[in-house]
Amino acid sequence: MPSPIRLKNSTAHYLRRRVPADVLAVAIGVTLRIPVGEDVVPVRVGGTGIVKVSLRTTDPKQAKERQATALSYLNSFWQSLRDGPARLTHQRVIGLAGEWYRQTKKEWEADPGRASLWGILNHAAQKWDMVKAQAEMEPYVAELLEQRALQVDDETRVRLATAMHGAFKDATALLERRGRGDYGPDTIEQRFGVWAPEAALNGTPAKVPTMTLFADWEREARLANRTDKTISEYRSLMQRFVDFVGHDDALLITPDDVIRWKDARLAAGISLKTVKHTDIAVLKSVLGWATENRRIPANPVPQLKLKLGKKNQERERGLTAVEAIDILRAASAYKAAPRELAQTAAAKRWVPWLCAYTGSRVGEMVQLRREDVEQRGAYLIVTITPEAGKVKDKKTRRVVLHLHLLDIGFVKFVNSSPDGYLFVKAKDRAEADGRVRAVKNRLCEFVRKIVPDERVAPNHGWRHRFQTVGRDVDASEGIVNAICGHGRRDVADDYGDRTFTAMAVALAKFPRYELN
To answer: Could you tell me if 225 and 394 are in contact, meaning their C-beta atoms sit under 8 angstroms apart?
Structure first.
């Protein structure tokens, strides 16, 4: 997919696309409602036939993700223009009115303002006759159809306006209740059913673009706090599958397509583990969501039993004591290369030491900021937080640092650093997200020269070693897990807190890495 563009004198990324020639004549003058992040941006198609919209981000990775969602919408809209106005069934009209009801509820329910204003709107709507209701609801109908990339016939438009008039009365009544402080159950929403854009009047299923389904899945995934990384990986794999089957219609996907995809991936050298836990799992998740939400009649992903054998483990997964010392010796002696960023050089100097004494993920240490390192009474603390960057479980944790880090000058380094990120050149998280991975890669290259054994991960090996040392010195397993950010095993682990004192006691048992 072509990359987003940057306009002259602008730091933001833009989507710029030409309207397909076969629909240009009918597209001119049409208003598009293009999804950009959490917003919907209205764009009117002009006589040039060029659609241009700001993606509202300076981050290249985020720009590509937003462009993919926007392009999926545009492709659906062009297809609706090709298909011409459709007649929606009564069920689909009610479901579409329900979508508007849910949007209105989401926008206003948490903070509705004065109840009396919603009461006035509801009272007025109760008095509208058919003509008045059609006129009042027409702008909402037009906007909703534009958002859903739908072209409907005049009769459907009238029926939809009537259904949305009913939804308007229900929504204003609900918001009046919310304004009075009544947040009891909403018994109205269920009556609308689920919007399912599939069947036309003649009973022949309309096209359901696979990547449009994905865009809708993504919206819910973001509400469920799925990570940007996960969503990006899912999108990439879904697009690769669409390219493989040669069409973008989820209704045409068959179990045989999935099996052919599986066989082709294996033939390309992709591991069985990746095919099972990534390729097939992603398809099953997204298309399963589409099935549950009545967007497609059935999940085409068959139950494939791919049994994985265990790999031969020829050595321990963690760094050995000798390898650890070699890495830390090289880190301590490191000097910045010509033209190397000061932050990258600092990462090579300090991140191996931080990982050695915390067992943390390398990315968690690379994204540390100056304000994340502080003195709390007798303890030197680092805060690992999603505010700074990606944290696997999205939970902030505070970790006591080993006293050896104080002795070798880490605090002095922190105090002499400017505010903000210590190891990446970035002014905020959006900018840092795209650069943390680059610094991690530089660290991997740096360590790989010292530990060339491909059987151990040069960065992740510290986590294994931290656990090994913890067992050797009989440190509390629960405290060691809390320090390095491992998940808890059972319900009992959720009781009680891991205090700084307990962490300090456990870390005091860890021997210092003496380089001489």
So the answer is: yes
- pTM over 0.85? The answer is no
SS (H, E, C) 255-282: HHHHHHHHHHHHHCCCCHHHHHHHHHHH
Q: Between the CA of residue 100 and those of 95, 216, 263, 473, what are the distances in Å? A: 9, 15, 43, 61
Cβ(410)–Cβ(352) below 8 Å:
no
**Residue 19: its H or E element:** none
Q: Match 């029926």 to its residue by tokens.
A: 159
- C-alpha 514/C-alpha 73 separation (Å) is 59
Give tens-digit pLDDT for 377-435. 888 999 998 888 888 777 888 999 999 999 999 999 999 999 999 999 988 888 887 78
Residue among 197, 215, 208, 248 nearest 35 (CA): 215
What value does the CA radius of gyration of the chain take, rounded to a whole number of Å? Answer: 28
The crossing angle, in degrees rounded to 10, of helices 461-472 and 342-358 is 30
Domains and CATH numbers, the chain: 90-192 (no CATH), 206-308 (1.10.150.130), 321-508 (1.10.443.10)
Contact of 11 with 124, CB cutoff 8 Å: no
- Give the chain's end-to-end CA distance (angstroms, integer): 53
CB 253 within 8 A of CB 300: yes
Lowest mean pLDDT among 41-55, 194-208, 346-360: 194-208
Contacts of 201 (CB under 8 A, 6+ apart): 86, 87, 89
Single-letter residue type at 1: M
* Nearest Cα to Cα of residue 358 among 495, 504, 515, 501: 504
DSSP3 helix / strand / coil % (the chain, rounded to 5) = 55, 10, 35
Q: Three-state secondary structure along 470-508? A: HHHCCCCHHHHHHHHCCCCCCHHHHCCCCCHHHHHHHHH
One-letter-per-residue 3-state SS of 425-448:
CCCCHHHHHHHHHHHHHHHHHHHH
Look at the block and give the residue holding tokens 């909403």: 186
Task: Yes or no: say if 86 and 153 are a contact pair by the CB < 8 Å rule.
Answer: yes
Per-position DSSP letters for 198-261, written without gaps between them: -B-TTSPBPP--HHHHHHHHHHHHHHTT--HHHHHHHHHHHHHHHHHHT---GGG--HHHHHHH
State the Cα–Cα distance between residues 101 and 190, nearest whole angstrom. Answer: 11
Q: Which among 271, 290, 267, 288 has a CA at the least distance from the CA of 279?
A: 271
Q: Specify whether the CB–CB gap between 232 and 221 falls below 8 A.
A: no
